[in-house]
Design goal:
Layout: H1 7-30, H2 39-50, H3 67-77, H4 82-122, H5 124-129, H6 136-155, H7 161-177, H8 180-198, H9 203-231, H10 241-248, H11 262-267, H12 269-273, H13 276-283, H14 288-305, H15 307-323, H16 335-359, H17 366-382, H18 389-393, H19 396-410
Length: about 425
């Protein structure tokens, strides 16, 4: 720990307060009285929780986890106005910047730590979404917190149960907020267990990582029990996988794996001409299990009928995850130019870190290598579904930590 009046402590406070003020101002300037994007859905789930249920008995559609609605519910119960609900994300973004700084600091020093924290605070995708009732701010807060606690727990000479429990809580709440990370948890745990068997000289550190994953899974058991009761399926994280696979594998002329909503399907001439409206009318309002089965069956048919087209969609999806284009039948947005300018250099740094990391792999701390594995699992899995840049930006604290930990060891910049 650092003395209360140390330069590092002052820097932490400045990062936290500066980010808090920034997002408070941005939220106030961006405020509007109506709900946009996914705000209505999250607010609806939060209102349901204040009434004693999550999904209605006659509509057991668990589209997303309860992590964000659980945070909103107490404020909704207190009848906090919409502006106040949106302001909560400023706190999450301030915490995310602080956690990012603390995660990087032991590996790369203050300059790298400030750099990663500033990207966390200022990334355009986060500045764009955090002023609204969207999950990005809470997700990036959990991810940054997990990076800090996980690396501290694994590298510690002795068991640090505070760090272990903190990492498990951060990852667990992340999963409840973005349920796709439940799949990441299970895949990561499988690899860690394999590592325990074959990597005997690192069993102590690997065991701590396994315990973190086990505690995380335990935290998610109530949610899995709830989805089991509603759907009858074991290990059901959500009920929208079929819809995502349907669009990821659709290969009609002009389509490239981009996702469309039910409202889009009903009004866009191109989608109507490709038969999506008729298919939705027949299958989208079936009972949840039947709908999921029908959509997944159609996705498998699409894959068998045109594997090259699905491969093209997969490549397009990687580009969308990074830069937000191409989008089927829709004009590109100005934000795409901004994302190319911001994410382009990040991609270059990632490639540089990967190259140096592979060349000097013995110098990479085990916990950083483990976190890199989690990143690859997440991005690899996400690339199979319709993606957006906001799905990638949330893991920036993990990516930034990896970049800093590698490049700070092997790259020295001199300014003359």
């Amino acid at each position: 720990m650092f003395p209360a009046n140390s330069p590092t402590k002052r820097l932490e406070l400045q990062l936290f307060c500066g980010t808090l003020v920034l997002y408070g101002v941005v939220t106030a300037l961006a405020h509007r009285p109506d709900l946009i994007w996914d705000e209505g859905r999250y607010l609806w789930f939060a209102e349901n929780l204040t009434s004693g249920f999550y999904v209605p008995p006659d509509q057991p559609d668990v589209l997303n986890g309860p992590g964000y609605p659980l945070v909103l519910a107490p404020l909704v119960a207190l009848k906090v106005p919409l502006m106040g609900l949106r302001m909560l994300n400023a706190v999450f973004m301030a915490l995310a910047a602080w956690f990012s700084f603390r995660a990087v600091l032991p590996y790369a020093g203050r300059r790298w730590a400030v750099g990663v924290a500033l990207v966390t605070a200022l990334h355009p995708n986060l500045v764009r979404t955090a002023p609204y009732l969207m999950t990005e701010a809470l997700a990036v807060c959990c991810i940054a917190g997990f990076a800090w606690a996980f690396t501290a727990a694994v590298r510690a000479e002795k068991w640090s149960w505070g760090a272990v429990i903190g990492a498990a809580f951060a990852f667990g709440w992340l999963i409840l907020t973005r349920v796709f990370f439940g799949n990441v948890l299970m895949a990561s745990t499988a690899f860690l267990l394999l590592g325990l068997v074959v990597w005997k000289n690192q069993r102590g550190m690997l065991l701590r990582a396994v315990v973190i994953m086990a505690l995380t899974f335990g935290m998610c058991l109530p949610w899995l029990a709830y989805t089991k009761a509603k759907t009858g399926d074991t290990l059901c994280w959500s009920t929208n996988g079929g819809e995502l696979l349907y669009w990821a594998t659709s290969t009609h002329d002009g389509e490239n794996g981009h996702w469309f909503s039910e409202e889009d399907v009903a009004v866009m001439p191109e989608l109507i001409a490709n038969g999506h409206r008729d298919y939705y009318r027949e299958n989208f309002h079936l009972p949840v299990k039947e709908r999921e089965a029908a959509l997944k069956h159609k996705a498998l048919e699409n894959l068998r009928a045109n594997p090259k087209g699905v491969l093209k969609n997969w490549v397009c999806n990687w580009v969308r995850l990074l830069f937000g284009f191409p989008r089927s039948y829709l004009p590109e947005e100005l934000i795409t130019v901004v994302l190319v300018l911001v994410n382009g250099p990040i991609v270059f740094l990632v490639l540089a870190a990967l190259g140096l990391g592979l060349k000097y792999w013995r110098t990479i701390p085990l916990e950083i290598a483990l976190l890199a594995g989690v990143i690859f699992i997440y991005l690899g899995g996400t690339s199979l579904l319709p993606g957006l840049p906001r799905y990638t930006v949330v893991v920036w604290p993990w990516i930034g930590l990896g970049i800093a930990a590698v490049l700070s060891r092997h790259v020295r910049l001199k300014v003359e």
